[in-house]
Design goal:
single chain, 6 helices, flat, mainly alpha, 77% helix, 0% strand
């Protein structure tokens, strides 16, 4: 029994995977800011803006803010929005590096990098929370 056909199939599958991955990375890196903003999903995973009067009155509680996250759809929307936020941070970092090198301002660059690092960290924490929470919502009947 020869392993050559199996090796050929494995190499072809790996090559196809790497080509699709490269195509996806090219598409991701060539997105505009507007296309990233349109990927944000309003709905169950986003806070309800009709409760802004509670914030003004000082009666906004965590229960009101986190109400949309009481089901699997809300957690899934939050998970997807966190991915978009990470891509937005990458976009902002890439384009701010280009703009700061052209303008020569390095003082605001460190503050921007810290904000982007915090945004990435928060988005990753949201994704981790969602991954841990999804089985709980999926298997609760």
């Amino acid at each position: 029994m020869s392993l050559a056909p199996l090796q050929s199939v494995i190499v072809a599958a790996l090559t196809l995977y790497l080509l699709l991955w490269r195509k996806g990375m090219f598409r991701r890196n060539s997105q505009s800011w507007e296309s990233l903003v349109t990927q944000l999903r309003p709905g169950p995973g986003t806070p309800d803006t009709s409760n802004l009067h509670l914030w003004v009155e000082g009666r906004l509680t965590a229960e009101v803010i986190l109400q949309p996250l009481n089901d699997l759809r809300g957690v899934w929307a939050m998970f997807q929005n966190a991915r978009v936020l990470m891509e937005m941070a990458d976009y902002a970092e890439t384009h701010s590096v280009l703009e700061s090198s052209e303008s020569g301002s390095a003082a605001s660059g460190s503050a921007d990098r810290m904000s982007l690092r915090t945004l990435r960290s928060d988005a990753m924490m949201i994704r981790m929370y969602a991954l841990v929470s999804m089985p709980r919502f999926a298997f609760s009947f």
